Amino acid sequence: MNEMSGVKLKICGISRDIDAQYINGAMPDYAGFIIGYPKSRRNISEERAAELRALIDSRIKTVGVFVDHPVENIARLANSGVIDIIQLHGSEDGEYISELRSITDAQIWKSFIVKSARDVEAARSCVADMVLLDGGLGGGTAFDHTLLDGFDRDFILAGGLCAENIKDAVLALRPYAVDVSSGVETDFVKDEKKILAVAQILRKPF
After folding, report:
1. What's the rounded Cα separation, in Å, for the pair 180 and 12?
2. Helices (DSSP H) in the chain: which residue ranges?
3. Catalytically annotated residues
4. What pTM value is reported for the model?
5. What mean pLDDT is predicted for residues 102-128?
């Protein structure tokens, strides 16, 4: 899985059975489910997440994306094996993360929408296991990457990434992982060719 570039790949917004098939064909490191957030067109229920987990290769870690969700619900999904990693994409703070850690051992990622240096500093000081830096809430929007000059912790890069720009972004920023969703879609649904294209780029040495 992406051993050549050293950068891990997450495909987010999995919602259909055929998406799971595409994921199995591309073998990214992570597959993301947006759970319990009706404002997203990629939203799925907890039950649907369990169905999709059963369809996805066990070597691929599943990530549950939540926005200000009850900690008990998140922990139940993590502790039952539906998701391997928790990604928080709302106003969750250090106290929330601590509460979550008290009831599950799953790794916790925290997303930050980067608009200013203040957002970057908040990400730097976050107590989560990993931070994800994004340009928006699932809208495929890139942010000003120059804001990351001197950023000194591992991070996941998201926002506007696709086959056409992902190599340049990785070379410039050297993220731990990249998170792609709308960049591997056509007409708002996952596109197998685009998923494979991104996966193949990251598998080549550069």
Report:
1. 6
2. 17-26, 46-55, 71-79, 94-101, 117-124, 166-173, 192-203
3. 12, 134
4. 0.95
5. 97
